[in-house]
Amino acid sequence: MPATYAETYAASSSDPEGFWLEAAASLAWDKKPTCAIDDSRAPIYSWYPDGMLNVSYNALDRHVLAGRGEATALVYDSAVLGIQQRFSYSQLLEQVATFAGVLRSQGVGQGDRVLIYLPMIPRAHIAMLACARIGAVHSVVFGGFAPKELAARIDDATPAAIVTATGGIEPSRRVEYLPAIAEAMVMATHQIPAVIVAHRDGFAHEPADYAGGTTAWHDWDQLAAGAEPVAAVPVPATHPLYILYTSGTTGAPKGVVRDSGGYAVAMDWSMRNIYGVGPGDTMLTASDVGWVVGHSYIVYGPLIAGATTVLYEGKPVGTPDAGAFWRLIDDHQVDVFFTAPTALRAIRKADPHAELLGNHDIGSLKALFVAGERLDPDTYEWACEKLGVPVIDNWWQTETGWPIASNPVGLELLERKPGSPTVPVPGYRVEIVDGFGASVPAGEEGNIVIKLPLPPGTLATLWGNDQRFIDTYLATFEGYYSTGDSGYLDADGYLFVMGRTDDVINVSGHRLSTGAMEQVLGAHPAVAECAVIGVADALKGQRPSGYVVLKSGSEISEDALGAELVAMVRREIGPVADFREVRIVEALPKTRSGKILRKTMRQIADGKPYSVPSTIEDPAVIQDLLPFLRPAG
Ligand code: COA
Ligand code: AMP
């Protein structure tokens, strides 16, 4: 293998077939692939078309068979419960094989979908890997989503079972999961045969409360007591491993489909070459298993690499204080730590001089990686100064599953530039184009696109909808994947990601659709029309801000309407939407064809120079809006 970043990148570009075939060799295959890229259905590509493997086998059995069964696979650290628990590779394998037997006993087979709605507990790992073991396709839903969002995912994925727990623990409250699931099942059309519930103490609802309907509700432990462990089932490399729903411009979530072989190769390759993590190393990724970062670098990546992964149930601040991450690094001798910029900003706000670092020894730490949103230079400098290790921004998306741009620490630590996630990762041919698809010169901002085929591990399609996959990502610029982000490459080839070109916003590192929020607002009887925009926020990166025009004759105060709309968004999308701001305005600025000028509104709200398209219907509307949009002061 070539050693430097430049050589590796060149090899991946000039001979992707040879490069990715060689990369696949470090995994255990039931049938070794003889070719890497299948372009027979271009622009939809697939990877390792004749290979067979099992991802759970690669994450667990392979290491146990290599004599590393006693090595720690998983450390569970719950700040909300005050407990720590370790699982060796052998122990985790045993639990996964048994739960695979539980799934089988409920009639779940290869290709069936399983919806997983679990908090940050080891059973999330166990359920995901058990699905992979029998070739079932998991779809994990983040606990902060409301029943309606859950119902939309149930109807799209049509799962054969739901795996859940009695509840999740937020610092301020206990979140009962079972009523949410029952409500979602009433809203959904698809009938779920079985719900398997992991018991957690301190919750009001139990599976027995829901007995008697067409769905069988089971206790996880009772089923596991009588289950036969199951061996890993070889599946084609192209077999879907999971579906992960993400927000788009419309209210309907998109089911990103991940394959098995390509993803396993990407995880193995990225752990070594980007994160520099292997057997004997410990990685702490403080995200949630419900997000892509959690799938890749809490669950699959570290285990495929044979490393130790730390599963943290808690927050960066408040559980109990802003030293939580430093304690975790110290307690578990973490080598590589991964979090979101918003978490660093929350810590900095609570402990500006990082005084709580003084209580802990973080000498084991080699690097901090951040992703989920842009790492602003100010937070970057703060983290570098306080932690004294390389702080690495990496840019990617649910769709790609692993970094598009990063400083490839495992290959070579490149010079860092604040505000830049460094360079395109080998396999990703990143270009910047204007609205017509023409290349723009270095330093000039445009649409960030990636030349097809994307590398292994990236989305195979959208669940059940190849056409939507093509229309959403591949149709705008022929021969390219459109990332939906804008940015520029500088003269040294460093990428700078500036923001989304669509109506997706990023609140506290959580990707949300303003379109989905507008749909909720628009359903209120007093609302004639509305716009939700993402306004720059010093802590959260962005926060959603709603502007509504009342139906004529409606008499409701801004406070009363605001409270009702906030409650509606919380009920329909979930607390994760973090929607708290509503202003009543006389009119919304629109083009003559009726398109609301959200970008102009956002520019004004962010205090930036704003552009008003010549097609605006009534320029006076902008003037009237200025006092509502302009930041105070
Ligand atoms: N289940 C139920 N509710 C949840 C939840 C979950 N898993 N996660 C968050 N929520 C709720 C919160 O309790 C909060 O509810 P509230 O309105 O009643 O207070 C609401 O959703 C908003 O949560 P959040 O945006 O997380 O705000 P916070 O104040 O609780 O925490 C941060 C702020 C910065 C600490 C937190 O957002 C964070 O850690 N972000 C990092 C995100 C991340 O890791 N992203 C993945 C990319 S790497
Ligand atoms: P998600 O699919 O939730 O991971 O969100 C992906 C989106 O988050 C990207 O399209 C970007 O808009 C944004 N994003 C993620 N990581 C970064 C980063 N390192 N820098 C800038 N934006 C980022």
Explain what the structure shows:
31% of the residues lie in helices and 24% in strands. It has 633 residues and is of the alpha/beta class. The chain has a domain of 122 residues: GMP Synthetase, Chain A, domain 3, CATH 3.30.300. Strand 26 and strand 27 form a beta hairpin. Helix 3 packs antiparallel against helix 4, helix 3 packs parallel to helix 10 and helix 12 packs across helix 13. The longest helix has 17 residues. The chain binds coenzyme A and adenosine monophosphate. Coenzyme A (COA) binds next to strand 9 and helix 12.
Number of strands: 32
Number of helical segments? 18
Q: How confident is the prediction overall: mean pLDDT? A: 96
The CATH class name of the domain at 508-629 reads Alpha Beta
Counting helices, strands and paired strands, the structural category is alpha/beta
Strand percentage lies at: 15-25%
Alpha-carbon Rg, integer: 24 Å
Shape call: globular
What's a concise summary of this model?
By secondary structure, the chain is α/β, with parallel strands linked by helices. The chain is 31% helix and 24% strand.
Which key phrases capture this entry?
32 strands; globular; GMP Synthetase, Chain A, domain 3; 633 residues; five-stranded parallel β-sheet; binds coenzyme A; binds adenosine monophosphate
Topology (SSEs and partners):
Layout: H1 5-14, H2 16-24, E1 37-38, E2 46-47, E3 52-53, H3 55-68, E4 72-78, E5 83-88, H4 89-105, E6 113-117, H5 122-134, E7 137-140, H6 147-157, E8 161-165, E9 167-170, E10 173-176, H7 177-187, E11 194-198, E12 216-219, H8 220-225, E13 235-236, E14 240-246, E15 254-259, H9 261-273, E16 282-285, H10 292-304, E17 308-313, H11 324-332, E18 336-339, H12 341-350, E19 367-370, H13 377-387, E20 391-393, E21 405-406, E22 423-424, E23 430-433, E24 446-451, E25 461-462, H14 466-474, E26 480-489, E27 495-500, E28 504-507, E29 510-513, H15 514-522, E30 527-537, E31 541-550, H16 558-572, E32 581-584, H17 598-605, H18 619-629
Parallel strand pairs: 4-17, 6-7, 6-8, 8-11, 11-12, 16-17, 16-18, 18-19, 19-20, 31-32
Antiparallel strand pairs: 1-2, 3-13, 4-5, 9-10, 14-15, 15-25, 21-22, 23-24, 24-26, 26-27, 28-29, 30-31
Residues 246, 292, 371-375, 393-395, 397-398, 421, 484-485, 497, 500, 506, 511 line the site of adenosine monophosphate (AMP).
